[in-house]
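User: quick one, sequence for these tokens?
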């Protein structure tokens, strides 16, 4: 699945990606908006930038997100 700019997402689980750090576990269950999707190649392995409610903007692996809209 490829995400698009402005799409609402939920961080619904821990990622299997090696870039996932323990502190990211606090993001599980949060909602956010995609601010910088991987639009060049739509590679599901690439990180996307998400603005999380109350937590700022972060680059996160795509396998931990699901669309809300």
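Assistant:
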């Amino acid at each position: 699945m490829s995400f698009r700019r402005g799409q609402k997402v939920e961080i619904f689980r821990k990622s299997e990606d090696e870039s996932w750090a323990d502190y990211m576990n606090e993001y599980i269950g949060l909602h956010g908006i995609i601010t910088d999707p991987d639009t060049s190649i739509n590679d599901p392995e690439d990180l996307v930038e998400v603005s999380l409610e109350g937590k700022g903007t972060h680059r996160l692996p795509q396998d931990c997100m699901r669309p809300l809209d």
